[in-house]
What we know:
Layout lengths: L1 H20 L1 E11 L2 E2 L4 E4 L2 E5 L5 E8 L4 E7 L5 E4 L1 E6 L9 E21 L2 E2 L4 E4 L2 E5 L5 E6 L7 E6 L6 E5 L6 E5 L4 E11 L2 E4 L4 E4 L2 E5 L5 E6 L6 E7 L3 E2 L2 E7 L3 E7 L1 E2 L5 E10 L7 H15 L5 E3 L2 H11 L3 H4 L15 E10 L2 E10 L4 E9 L5 H15 L3 E8 L2 E4 L12 E9 L5 E15 L4 E6 L12 E4 L12 E10 L7 E2 L4 E4 L2 E5 L5 E6 L4 E7 L6 E6 L6 E7 L2 E6 L1 E2 L4 E4 L2 E5 L2 E8 L1 E8 L7 E7 L3 E4 L5 E2 L4 H10 L3 H9 L8 H14 L4 H13 L1 H4 L8 H17 L4 H20 L9 H23 L2 H16 L9 H17 L3
Parallel strand pairs: 1-9, 9-16, 17-25, 27-28, 27-29, 38-45, 46-53, 47-54
Antiparallel strand pairs: 1-2, 1-5, 3-4, 3-6, 6-8, 7-9, 9-10, 9-13, 11-12, 11-14, 14-15, 17-18, 17-21, 19-20, 19-22, 22-24, 23-26, 29-30, 30-31, 32-33, 32-37, 33-36, 34-35, 34-37, 35-36, 38-39, 38-42, 40-41, 40-43, 43-44, 46-50, 48-49, 48-51, 51-52
Helix pairs in contact: 2-5, 6-7, 7-8, 8-9, 8-11, 9-11, 11-12, 11-13, 12-13, 13-14, 13-15, 14-15
Amino acid sequence: MIKHTVRSVLVLCASLTLVACGQKLDLEVKARMDGQAASQARVVVDGQEQGTTDGEGRFAMTLTKKVGTEVEVRVSKEAPGYRIQPWKTTFVVKLPTGGGVDRYSFDADLQATRYVNLAATEKGAPVADAVVSVNGKEAGKTDANGVFVYEYKGLPKKDVEFAVSKAGYAAWRKASRLEPGQRLEAALSRRAVLSLVALTEEYGQTSGLAGLTVSINTKPVGKTDEKGAYTYTYDGEPGKRVLVSLSAPGYIPGEWKSAIAVEGQVTVQRYFYPTTAKPIRVGIYRFAGNTPSVDLTEVAARTEEAIGAQLFKYAAFREVPREALRAEIEGEKLGIDRLTTKGWNDTRLRRTVDMIVLGSVAKDDAGFTIEARFYTSGGKVILSQITRARSAGDISGAAREIAANVIERFPFEGRVVAVEDDRYWVNIGKPYRIGRGTDLTLSAPRLGDGGRVTDYRETGRLTVKRADEDGSWAEAEDLKKGEKVSIGDRVARRLYSEGEPERERDSFILSAKGGMAGDANGAPLPGVNVYLNNEWVGTTGAGGRTEVPLRLGKSYQLMLYRHGYQQVTEKISVEKKREVKEFVLGANNSLFKVDSVPAGAAIYVDEGEIGKTPLLEGKLVNLGFHRVRLTVGEDYRDWEEVMEFEKKVEDRTGDRKVVLHKDYLRIGEKAAQSGDVDAAIQAYASTVKGHPDYSEAHRRLGGLYLDEKNDYDSAVREFENVLSLPENQQLIYKQFAVTFTNLGHAYYAKGDDLAQKDRAAAAEYFGKAVQTLQIAKQNTRFFPTQEYHEALHDTYYYLALAYHKLYLVTRRPAVMNNADLAWREYFDFFPKKLQGNPAYEESHKAAQKYWAQIKDQ
């Protein structure tokens, strides 16, 4: 008993001694960076440096610390071209087990970011605010010292392409294998840049003229693009004049020339006008019901069909197919509110349609009220017509009446394109309801900076003496003092009301508000069409007002109509000039209820936010078509749809709630940018058929298999899946024309992989590549703008390669001839914008070697 007590006391004393005096312990650190051992990493314990790791990233030492003490261990490393985040941990010293020395081991995983410095200079001087792009995407701008620091984590498998650009300087490009800490010198040089813009203008809207030949000092240098623009970089003596010409057959002038001093940035705009007016491209977008709780879907559809059938009998209008129009509007994500206020002049839709017709059908005890409105590409209503139909059976007659009124009332425009003595040839004739005696208002353009037309001033009137199919001869009537008729002046068919062509009519100010009937405090209501005796006389503007011409003291039947509101009809008589008359249009509303998965999505109707889901109590929305968007952010794709509100309640809750899809495009793009190809593949592969991003995601997926994994079978599979969808195969969605290039490239790569193993199979894949790339070649105009030049290059390059390799495995003379022609076309169509790009210059050199193998055979 005594011995046991003594032994216990001895152990206790030993423990107290360790606590008081300290305990020896072994500390071991293994430092790694990017999965590799990190040598020469500094190890600091409790603020004091103890040493550095060895060649295998190891550090070991023995410490003496009191039991219960918290010990801090920090590992840091410095290396040129790296920003390395220090690693830190803490631990508490414990009593040793078994009386020995405890070992404390740690794995220090250092997180490193690499960087390179890019310095932009001009003759040795730094160039600040130069835009730096990496692999085609803007990464930032140079600082005041002309330096941009590019940071990256993983080591890229391929060379990284840097581009530096700034207005007034020639673009600089270089592809480089990245080395941490390296310094890239971007030596910029100033260049004079001449920007030519060829324009035309119709019905107040300006648009570019594509395809005009541009010549500099009599030498053709290119053609204007879809915006009518051509940019010429001048390397000669600054300030020197060059002779610039634009060839525009079929337009006035047919050729324009000018000597221009080129120094710095020079922009020149020039307007051209067709010698024969082109038919107006008109698309009927939608007709909608405007009576709550009355299903007018079938009546609206019949009205839309009937008006189209009548309107396009007239040669002045050319039909834009409705389904194609709707597909393009959906592709551009344009809502009706946007179309009818800001228009579509700044979108790709401008290439398809000049004017859009929107319609409305309302029902009352006397039948149907039908309205058709014509909007220009600037969002302005240029003409509106309204009529009645007693029953559904009378819709065809009502449509015929509207079309006839349109052709008689439409303010057709043209241009003076030739002068002969005192006669003037204008480019509109009989198809535009121009005949002998027709009066034409004459206007001359006012020009702003760079030659852009800012507006027009009325200079007089012409009277038609003879009208033909392709134009009319007119003589001047009532020219204003000091004015003359010039080629390019605008003419517009002049219309009169009430048989008073020479009388200056009076007017009143009409003010329209939207709200409950009788509510004088309603909000100003723009877009209200005003009719006097069923004749359209104007539309209220942003403040809900418009000036309406009439005769004082005379009685008129006034009708105010705006879709989504109740029409106002009453007799009016105005006794005082510019008298203000106010009217209130009651709203025709639908109660919109909506829920979503996930919940919490912001709800937008025509870009105005109305709440968040679940919106179970509902919000009032005017009847008609509206673009509805739900967005929840994070990793979810926005939900968008053009919805027709025609019921008292539009309920999208319960089984009809909106389901938002994961935004796999964004998830995959983030992963790809960070170098995690496998994560990008997983994200893109997560889209299944029916997902709105399926086509684009699987196109990108095929690209990763092709370019990053060299998995040609998977690449072929993904591209074929995309093109198996009818809407892509038939190019309803034009951007997928580039997928034919992708698939042709994959077929070629698969054939090239088989060339040494199975010549017959290789020939089969080369043949498939040729067929597919021929389809791509026929549709290059549809390639997406952001990748147009690269896709154009790849189309011609891999087509030539496929023919070439097919010849090598078959030795058929016909194939050799096709290969020779394909190489010629490749060199002819090599995109100028890719000249100087190292990656594509390598392809160009390789192509020259291939062509040399066969061109002399």
